[in-house]
């Protein structure tokens, strides 16, 4: 993410006005996924509050939510330590995601309403814009909305929540390097490819693009220098 004096922009959730706690929690999850908050590091609530431009109270509350999800551990009198995720865990998460996301999304080529699919185009374009700007938190947020939005069209709410949890536990430490190399935008544009293939009712094309796309999780997006 391109850092600035005011810190990252907090996400907006749903149609109602979110609380600071909800906005901070979503921003922190995105920062964890993108690797902006590093495993083993201890972060204080006041320090994070200054970064996100809010008071320390909603940050503490948000971090306690993340602790319940197993994403951070509390460190008495100091703050919160980001939980480390092993390569084996990441491989397992990605494997499960591919088993769910690829066939489910590909199946939408024959079942999803064209209007509902087209409604996701602004989100796909938002991903490309975030990639071009180097805004990793916005990139991760929009990516989550896009893929969960597609899966929701299959009509299985439990499946969506399973994938949401797996995506929250993923880590994409290579994104910063891709931004610096100017290579993240090409990956971002795959979201538009997926959407176009779905609208063309080409199930095999959807499967191919999504297989390539998810392959980046343990490839291009996995670690710096790749």
TrEMBL record:
PROSITE patterns: HTH_GNTR. Residues 18-85 form the HTH gntR-type domain. SUPFAM superfamilies: GntR ligand-binding domain-like (SSF48008), Winged helix' DNA-binding domain (SSF46785). Transmembrane segments: none annotated. SMART domains: FCD (SM00895), HTH_GNTR (SM00345). Keywords: DNA-binding, Transcription, Transcription regulation. InterPro entries: GntR_C (IPR011711), TF_FadR/GntR_C (IPR008920), Tscrpt_reg_HTH_GntR (IPR000524), WH-like_DNA-bd_sf (IPR036388), WH_DNA-bd_sf (IPR036390). It comes from the Bacteria. Coiled coil: none annotated. This is GntR family transcriptional regulator. It comes from Streptomyces thinghirensis.
């Amino acid at each position: 993410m391109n850092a600035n004096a005011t810190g990252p922009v907090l996400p907006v959730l749903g149609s109602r006005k979110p609380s600071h706690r909800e906005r901070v929690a979503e921003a922190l999850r995105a920062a964890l996924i993108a690797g902006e908050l590093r495993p083993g590091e201890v972060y204080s609530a006041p320090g994070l509050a200054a970064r996100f431009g809010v008071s320390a109270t909603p940050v503490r509350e948000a971090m306690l939510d993340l602790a319940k999800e197993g994403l951070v551990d509390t460190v008495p009198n100091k703050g919160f330590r980001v939980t480390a995720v092993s390569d084996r865990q990441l491989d397992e998460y990605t494997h499960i995601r591919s088993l769910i996301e690829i066939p489910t999304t590909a199946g939408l080529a024959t079942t999803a309403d064209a209007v509902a699919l087209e409604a996701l185009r602004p989100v796909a374009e938002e991903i490309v814009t975030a990639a071009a700007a180097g805004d990793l938190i916005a990139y991760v947020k929009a990516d989550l909305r896009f893929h969960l939005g597609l899966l929701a069209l299959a009509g299985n709410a439990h499946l969506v929540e399973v994938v949401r949890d797996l995506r929250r536990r993923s880590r994409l430490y290579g994104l910063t390097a891709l931004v610096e190399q100017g290579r993240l935008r090409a990956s971002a544009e795959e979201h538009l490819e997926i959407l176009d293939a779905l609208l063309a009712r080409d199930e095999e094309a959807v499967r191919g693009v999504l297989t390539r796309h998810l392959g980046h999780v343990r490839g291009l997006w996995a670690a710096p220098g790749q």
